[in-house]
Amino acid sequence: MGETIDAGGVDLWVERRGTGPDVLLVAGLGDTAEAWQAQLDGLADRYRLTAFDNRGAGRTPLSEEPLSVPRMAEDAAALLDALGIPAAHVAGFSGGSFIAQELALGRPELVSSLVLVSTCARPDAYFRSMTGFWHWMAERAPSERAMLEAFFLWVYTPRAHADGTVARIVEETLAFPHPQSVDAFQRQLASFVRHDTLDRLAQITAPTLVLAGELDLATPPRLGRVVAEGIPDAEFEVLPGEAHQPFQEVPDLFNARADAFWREVGARG
């Protein structure tokens, strides 16, 4: 069961599981703590995992103040402070990986390591055009189901569309009792489009693993490679046959790779 935590004046909905070294899981556009269910279930025997709803997603309200990636990184830092966690391994995907970058830049003492999944440092022309389409698609899709079915074309592999995985996720999303509003979706999306750490990546000191899906349309490997090349000594891996959310589609593979990386970081001290 989750709970609401006052994180610097923001009521963040938080799910916690397991025991061991601390891991903070940071979700992307529109996603809630449940997006990390396979990690909360699969890694709890080795780690104390914390996942949360970003502002405007799920059970965390969206305030009237301007939304930005640095502001959401401050929320993540305030959550760690409120929970009394001095440092954690931080894993973020898509927009959550943008937040994780800003967290590592703004509060480096809180970040033991970074796992950045489906990431980029500065959106390019394709990304901006794609997200511009998402912006008006959220308003004009004939139904929430149609919106999800279209949006997920950029998110999941052809395999997941063929084997029923996407259909299941659509049904679960429609049944979720805390849907994201169109306004919240658009405001989160706009903040992620403004993300830019390209000229500051060299300042990140945390050990970093960058994972990219070979078939990712939204943040293809070329964008992740730029991030890995900009962060000193970062590791970069392309996952063959995977798309934007491998932690959901192949959770055993993802969990094993993240676990191996965290153990390596821990062994280095």
TrEMBL record:
Alphabetically list the UniProt keywords.
Answer: Hydrolase
- Looking at the record, the residues that make up the AB hydrolase-1 domain are 23-246
Q: Which residues form a coiled coil?
A: none
**Transmembrane intervals:** none
Q: Which domain of life is it from?
A: Bacteria
**MF terms (GO), sorted A to Z:** hydrolase activity
- Which InterPro entries does this one have? AB_hydrolase, AB_hydrolase_1, AB_hydrolase_fold
One Pfam match: Abhydrolase_1
**Would the keyword Ribosomal protein be found if you checked this record's keyword annotation?**
no
Q: What is this protein called?
A: Alpha/beta hydrolase
